[in-house]
Design a protein that fits this description.
heterodimer, A: mainly alpha, MetI-like fold, 13 helices, B: mainly alpha, 2 domains
Chain lengths: 307, 102
């Protein structure tokens, strides 16, 4: 520890101080944030972890150590596996749709033109509106009777669809809503990424007679890959933990067709009052998310082109 | 793939952009439209309200303490912003600039 510290301060002589000499000061500055993190993040997390090895009565007044029994029950529970399946199906729709829609938006507004800020604002609106507003808007847009979408389908001679109330359609529909809510955010990140790409690369490509399509595949995509990687990572994690829109639009129904992992946890904890069982599922979800993030870093993190 | 005439490029770009942006905000537009409809017109077809009215806004202001809600939001957002700024600034400074063990 000490050796490392000395090496570090020798390199940056401007900050040359006795190693560890400012530890007290640093602790003082870090304290407010660390204390908040400890109280509101670390402690509840550890608590949930601890709880997942127990069984308790309804009021939570008595606890009994049961070891891995909750986890064993989880692995045997068909409802849990249905939720896991629904979660990954959900993410498998959200991630490509959100990245595609965001990419189209970003490509359109990355370079300035008259009125560009107006369109940037419109695109960002999808993310800027609160989840509750978005859910009400979509609930109304998809309304089986008065909804605009079904009205249009009817006008085109197609049968109206029960978007949020059919077992087959509810999950894909929710996935589209979730992707939509992320478009603004994705578009902002990708726009920033696109603006980092030097214009002269395109100029050179144009002089060489490269088509717009080839410019996109050979310049834009490789140089955008770090941003795309970040976007993909965030989108995957975000879609696997989606809750608000599901809670507001379908509550896991109809017939549990939109009962994703997070919603299963919520149900078990706050409707079935099985906090310890819900904790076990939450710990499992956390481990899966950690694993996925790690895998993404391993597989794609190295192939990303950092220009 | 044949190239488009130059004079067409700009209008086509704006057209595509407009259609895309319109489709993206469409759910929000239906919400906006519904807010200007009377209860009787709620299910009337079309994106535009047939008889625009401020009834719904009037009702919301009369029935609910909207001012109080606004104040609540203001209190929460202001205190969160201030708190985050203070705590994060001090943490950020410590992590980035202060040499310490660990």
């Amino acid at each position: 520890m000490m050796v490392k510290e000395q090496d570090f301060s020798r390199r940056s002589s401007a900050y040359h101080v006795r190693p560890g000499g400012e530890t007290l000061e640093a602790l003082f500055l870090l304290a407010p944030g660390l204390i908040l993190l400890l109280i509101f993040l670390v402690w509840p997390t550890l608590n949930a972890f601890w709880l997942s090895f127990h069984r308790e009565n309804l009021l939570g007044t008595q606890r009994e150590w049961v070891g891995l029994a909750n986890y064993a029950e989880m692995l045997r529970d068909p409802a849990f596996w249905r939720a896991v399946g629904a979660t990954f199906l959900f993410a498998a729709i959200v991630v490509p749709v959100q990245i595609f829609l965001g990419m189209v938006a970003a490509l359109m507004v990355a370079r300035p033109f008259p009125g560009v800020n107006f369109f940037r604002t419109l695109f960002f609106l999808t993310t800027a509106v609160p989840t509750a507003v978005a859910a009400v808007a979509w609930g109304w847009f998809l309304h089986p009777v008065g909804g605009l979408l079904n009205r249009w389908l009817e006008a085109m001679g197609l049968p109206p669809q029960p978007w949020l109330t059919s077992v087959e359609l509810a999950l894909p529909t929710l996935a589209i809503v979730t992707a939509w809510a992320g478009v603004g955010f994705t578009a902002i990140l990708l726009t920033a990424g696109l603006q980092q790409i030097p214009e002269d690369l395109y100029e050179a490509a144009r002089i060489d007679g490269a088509s717009a399509w080839r410019q996109f595949w050979h310049i834009t995509l490789p140089l955008l890959s770090p941003t795309l990687f970040l976007v993909a990572l965030l989108t995957v994690l975000n879609s696997l933990t989606a809750f608000g829109q599901i809670h507001l639009l379908t509550r896991g129904g109809p017939a549990e067709s939109t009962m994703v992992w997070v919603y299963r946890i919520y149900q078990d904890a706050f409707f079935n009052f099985r906090f310890s069982y819900a904790s076990a599922q939450a710990v499992a979800l956390f481990l899966v998310l950690l694993l996925l993030a790690g895998l993404q870093f391993r597989w794609f993190g190295r192939r990303v082109h950092y220009g | 793939m044949g190239r488009l005439p130059r004079w067409l490029e700009k209008p086509l770009f704006y057209l595509a952009l407009g259609v895309y942006a319109w489709l993206l905000v469409l759910p929000l537009l239906t919400l906006l439209s519904a807010s200007f409809r009377s209860d009787a017109d709620l299910y009337a077809p079309g994106l535009l309200p047939p008889r625009p009215t401020l009834e719904a806004y009037q009702e919301a202001i009369q029935k609910y303490p909207v001012g109080r809600y606004l104040l609540n939001s203001l209190v929460v957002s202001l205190s969160v912003t201030l708190g985050v700024l203070l705590v994060s600034a001090s943490m950020g400074y410590a992590l980035a600039r202060v040499r310490f063990i660990g």
